Amino acid sequence: xxxxxxxxxxxxxxxxxxxxxxxxxxxxxxxxxxxxxxxxxxxxxxxxxxxxxxxxxxxxxxxxxxxxxxxxxxxxxxxxxxxxxxxxxxxxxxxxxxxxxxxxxxxxxxxxxxxxxxxxxxxxxxxxxxxxxxxxxxxxxxxxxxxxxxxxxxxxxxxxxxxxxxxxxxxxxxxxxxxxxxxxxxxxxxxxxxxxxxxxxxxxxxxxxxxxxxxxxxxxxxxxxxxxxxxxxxxxxxxxxxxxxxxxxxxxxxxxxxxxxxxxxxxxxxxxx
Amino acid sequence: xxxxxxxxxxxxxxxxxxxxxxxxxxxxxxxxxxxxxxxxxxxxxxxxxxxxxxxxxxxxxxxxxxxxxxxxxxxxxxxxxxxxxxxxxxxxxxxxxxxxxxxxxxxxxxxxxxxxxxxxxxxxxxxxxxxxxxxxxxxxxxxxxxxxxxxxxxxxxxxxxxxxxxxxxxxxxxxxxxxxxxxxxxxx
Lengths: 273, 188
Hints:
- The complex is a heterodimer of chains A (273) and B (188).
- Chain A is of the alpha+beta class and 273 residues long.
- Chain A has 9 helices and 4 strands, in the order ααβαβββαααααα.
- In chain B, α1 runs antiparallel to α2 (65-79) and α2 packs antiparallel against α3.
- Chain B starts with a helix and ends in a 30-residue tail after the last helix.
């Protein structure tokens, strides 16, 4: 997402040759992109991962689990998709519960038993219930806006303070802040993403009344590895567990909290009753 | 002059607060009505499956007429139930008759092996899961409503706004109901 938006910005910049209209061009480009991905984002996410929609008769086990969980949460039943990949993983997309979809890998269906599959799907429905796609869209849009504002500030400081030596320090600080702002905004966006993962875990545990199902599903995924064949960072944050290979991102850059932490929190929930 | 403004602002703020409280109680109230309707929808699904199930068992065990009579009567009663308490009670009573019916089926291995019966059992299990899901959702909404009604600050005004009592949970006596949980349970 960030990459394509940056690309749009870069193209507009190069085309317009560096005048002020660039910023408006970049801003409009990025916001248009955000609007497009907001309204058709779920179709894109599903297409990118080559997901196929299923009906109840195609896979009654999965469909019934999703349907019953939707009734428990008071949501309309989302569309159900399956993607062909040996790694166990799942994601949910959709800007609101009425236009939502969940997708699971064939690997997940093979490895999990019913209680664990229920836990995973409850987590995904939790994302839908908490409007997490909307949250991450807004977070991303803010990142873009902050980046552009930082850029504008940068140029303003260049043009207005060349003749005033007293403001050298302020200029340097301003430069550092302007350069760091987009980076910090991205960190915050990722931190939000991790927080929402914990929230979806909790919502899922509440729906199933059985946090152990989700916890043991996470453990199985931790052992099996959740990296899928089709590496695509733009939809990474939507997945249940980190779909990117270990080397690509870690720690601060991760869209998902570490699995051990998630398991620990879930097991603790059971103990508090 | 300024005192008048302060008083007006205070009244408007209080008005907003009361409106918010009232709306949240009304919303939860409506949601709980809808949730209860959902329970009834799922229950109806279950009761619609019963005639087929009874005739499938009758095909193998014609003489067990008491059980069939009990099932049919419990079903009639449950279909006619209104209100949360009555529906929950008839739900529990019906599940007890189901236990007897499946106990009868245990004695006829041909029946249990028949595709028709297994399919019905499968559907019934899914329907029971859906009923449980609907009950959970309903109880969740009722919990939220009761909590909102009795916690500060909404509890001060809840009575005067017309919400004088807590709603009741949909509670079914499930000690006897385990019969339908596991469909194909072959014991030797």
